[in-house]
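Retro notes, item 3 of 5
We never archived the inputs for the 2-phosphoglycolic acid complex last cycle. Fixing that now. Sequence and ligand:
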Amino acid sequence: MRRPLIAGNWKLHKTRDESVALVTALKAAVAGVDSCDILVAPPFTALAVLAPLLAGSNIQLGAQNCYPETTGAFTGEISPQLLKDAGCSAVIVGHSERRQLFAEDDAFINRKVKAVLAAGLTAILCVGETLEERENGEILDVLTRQTKGGLAGLDATVLQNVVIAYEPVWAIGTGKTASNEDAQEVHSFLRGLLRGSYDQATADNTRILYGGSVKPDNVDGLMAQDDIDGALVGGASLKAEDFARIVRFG
Ligand code: PGA
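Structure as it came back at the time:
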């Protein structure tokens, strides 16, 4: 019912030439794969270079961030409209690195989600607790606040263009992953939140990705969980072979 999505978040890596090399290798490695949606989110500078290479392929192009205005005096920022113009179909919003390093709060992230949807793009909304919040028993409160805050004011009809990514902060870039069971429990909780805020159909249809040290050797177990609908992959998305193996989970 929910088509899996495997998304690669390249973060601050890859020149244009390196991006072309990675995408060229990746295209070959995932040619013919039709069991899931595949997306890469390179740095802004590579977007317009990669768009023609990816056109007509089974790999979609996404951005890692945006600013929630269309045009104007916002030096250094980029709008969803410009990302669409560069060839993107999705934007990652509210990644924990943005929340932690750039002090983005739920209200600002909510504006971004709305701006991304208004531009006709898919919003990949990241949520996730820190280790401290987990140890203090605040995990469900944090996830509720981030999910409801990020989706505030959106009605069910636009949720079809929203993907949630659960990324426990302590698992990002650390080599530690949530156990399959712990991840499933959180995903099931998040789906319950969607059911409560919207309805059963929205909960059933919204994809919830897991992120945080997803690798070729742990993806299969994660993807076998009922409520895990894909992965947001950082480090392992920088190697075509590893990312292709993740795309070919099974
Ligand atoms: P990681 O990053 O796979 O390197 O842990 C995931 C992410 O930050 O999206």
